[in-house]
């Protein structure tokens, strides 16, 4: 049905296993394909790294977002956030549907922690309004996260029509679960696991999730199913679990 949407979010840990022991992007690509999601929000995606290709025999020649999208997700966008001598990494969105426009907004709280909001506008056949998707990876410190949430609120109010369907997903690093005060109370969004389970899902560390760091917030959808993907093979791929949601457009 064209009014159904299946999305997922994953912090991929730059394509490495825990403690950066092994390159996991090949297993990651296979596992993402098995999810069969329409749109995937990714964090800690390597766009370029000059040293990894020489150091690791199975390092992909193309940027990770292209390698992961391959022929399954025909459209993708990448927001470069952290830039260093060897290369850069950031957020990415992979989509089965056309990405009509996109922008990456710098919300870095300080020069030691580069962060961005990757905003894509996606055209889905027969939908009256375009779908707005924002992939986030917020900072580690409370003051920085508060500022980033304020910037996210301002960005949505200015650029996302109130009647347009909206999905915000990613790694919020929100240990104290305060993000909903802005996203739910002020912007009329709903977190999918708060709706289905009463609280955000535990996602970190992936071997035995204790902390509720990753979220999916939506506006304009009914949630059919929300799921945490943990255990094998996911716990071998990254230190975060995967979240997915199957939704119906209202």
From TrEMBL:
Domain Endonuclease/exonuclease/phosphatase per the UniProt entry, residue ranges: 8-240
One GO CC annotation: membrane
Keyword Repeat belongs to the record: no
Alphabetical keyword list: Endonuclease, Exonuclease, Hydrolase, Nuclease
Entry keyword annotation includes Nuclease: yes
GO biological process assignments: GPI anchor biosynthetic process
Record field: transmembrane: none
Domain of life: Bacteria
An example molecular function term from Gene Ontology annotations: endonuclease activity
PANTHER family: CALCOFLUOR WHITE HYPERSENSITIVE PROTEIN PRECURSOR, PGAP2-INTERACTING PROTEIN
UniProt-recorded name of the protein: Endonuclease/exonuclease/phosphatase
Protein species of origin: Nitrosospira multiformis (strain ATCC 25196 / NCIMB 11849 / C 71)
């Amino acid at each position: 049905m064209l009014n159904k949407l299946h999305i997922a979010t994953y912090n991929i840990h730059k394509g490495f296993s825990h403690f950066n022991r092994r390159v996991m992007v090949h297993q990651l690509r296979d596992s993402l394909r098995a999810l069969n999601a329409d749109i995937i929000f990714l964090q800690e995606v390597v766009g370029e790294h000059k040293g990894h290709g020489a150091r690791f025999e199975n390092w992909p020649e193309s940027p990770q977002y292209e390698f992961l999208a391959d022929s399954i997700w025909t459209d993708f966008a990448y927001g470069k956030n952290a830039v260093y001598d060897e290369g850069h990494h950031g957020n990415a969105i992979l989509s089965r549907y056309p990405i009509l426009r996109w922008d990456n907004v710098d919300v870095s709280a300080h020069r030691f922690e580069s962060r961005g909001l990757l905003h894509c506008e996606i055209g889905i056949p027969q939908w009256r309004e375009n779908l707005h998707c924002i992939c986030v990876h917020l900072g580690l410190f409370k003051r920085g996260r508060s500022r980033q949430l304020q910037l996210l609120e301002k960005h949505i109010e200015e650029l996302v029509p109130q009647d347009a369907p909206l999905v915000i997903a990613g790694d919020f690093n929100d240990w104290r679960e305060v993000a909903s005060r802005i996203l739910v109370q002020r912007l009329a969004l709903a977190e999918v696991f708060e709706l289905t389970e009463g609280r955000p899902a535990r996602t970190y560390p992936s071997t035995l999730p204790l902390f509720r760091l990753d979220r999916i917030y939506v506006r304009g959808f009914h949630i059919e199913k929300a799921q945490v993907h943990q255990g094998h093979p996911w716990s071998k791929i990254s230190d975060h679990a995967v979240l997915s949601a199957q939704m119906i457009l209202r």
